[in-house]
Amino acid sequence: MADLLDPGTARGLDDLLRRMRGGAPGATSGMLALLAALVVMFSLLLPGRFLTLGTAQSMMFQVPELGLLALAMAIPLISGGLNLAIIATANQCALLMAWIMKSSIVAGTGSAEAFAFVVLALLAGLALCATIGFVAGFLIARTGVHPILVTLGLMSLVDGISIYLTRGTVISGFPEAFQLLGNATVAGVPVPFLVLAAVAVAVALTLARTAFGISVYMIGSNLEATRYSGIDVERVLVGVYTLSGVLCFVAACLMMARFNSASAGYAQSYLLITILAAVLGGIDPFGGFGRIGGLMIALVVLQVIASGFNLLGLSQHLTLAIWGLTLIAVMAIKFLLAPLRSRGASPRKPQ
């Protein structure tokens, strides 16, 4: 597209897209500095206990579910929206897949039949998540109702159905081969972490290198201008929430495999933490700007805090408080440094 424009306009467009993909100025470098400081602090407080292979492996086992759900939240955030139904979607997906496996795979079922039923369960879960995401995107795009209201309603609907059908009980006991997805390691690296890394790379490339991804950034930056530019805004929004639902499916698979169970009440505390991680990672809560790499670094920062506090024997509730304090501190620092950045920025030369 830039080849069809004059050089000045092309450079301006490239600069805009670069800033949109990059997120808040200094977000990634700031998160890396904070991560380094936390690692040094906990290494000094916990000599011989924090910087160990066991601790690193434990963190890699714990971060994937939150990471995938944060990705499911990040894409709507970049588009200027929000998906409050990600936890409800993942839990209902897990319950559906668990019910299919438990009711179909019984004593005496052959390995080939068991494999077929697992595949059937996965396809059903994927279809459910994609459908919920599609409905959310369709309602947001067609009605113009704010995403908070649409996804809040869907969250209540999906949660209510899940709790009614299961009476709040836990479904557990899945094939051992399926459990390997959440508990196995490859060369010492947990499989769930490898899944998270692969999905994060795929999402980052989709947002940064495809027409769909650029459209998502443009919608988040200015919805009406994007509409007048000829982009099918409704179609992109439906794609945004459908993709968010598909990411919930991947998260549901990992949660089922790691915990060997499914419930409507799992991961409820993760909802606001996914937003916290996205904002910490430089994704603008008003849309249009952000980078998946920054989100991943923010997730590692949060997990380092959680693991360090756990090794220190501190309460998990205090960890949540520190996560919130970290977000407030980062936002305050950005606010204080904003005038310095604006004075230090070199004026653009006229084209």
Got a strand count? 4
Assembly type: single chain
Radius of gyration over C-alpha positions, nearest whole angstrom: 22 Å
Q: Helix tally?
A: 14
Q: Largest sheet, described in full?
A: 2 strands, antiparallel
Helix content: over 70%
The overall pLDDT, averaged over residues, is 86
Biggest sheet strand order reads: 1-4
Task: Describe what this molecule looks like in 3D.
The chain has 351 residues and is an all-alpha fold. It has a single domain (25-336), classed as ABC transporter involved in vitamin B12 uptake, BtuC, CATH 1.10.3470. It has 14 helices and 4 strands. The strands form 2 sheets. Strands 1-4 form a two-stranded antiparallel ribbon. It has a two-stranded antiparallel sheet with strand order 2-3. A hairpin with a 2-residue loop joins strand 2 and strand 3 (189-190). Helix 2 packs parallel to helix 13, helix 4 (86-104) packs parallel to helix 6 (147-166) and helix 5 packs antiparallel against helix 11 (233-259). The longest helix has 33 residues, at 111-143. The chain is globular and about 70 Å long.
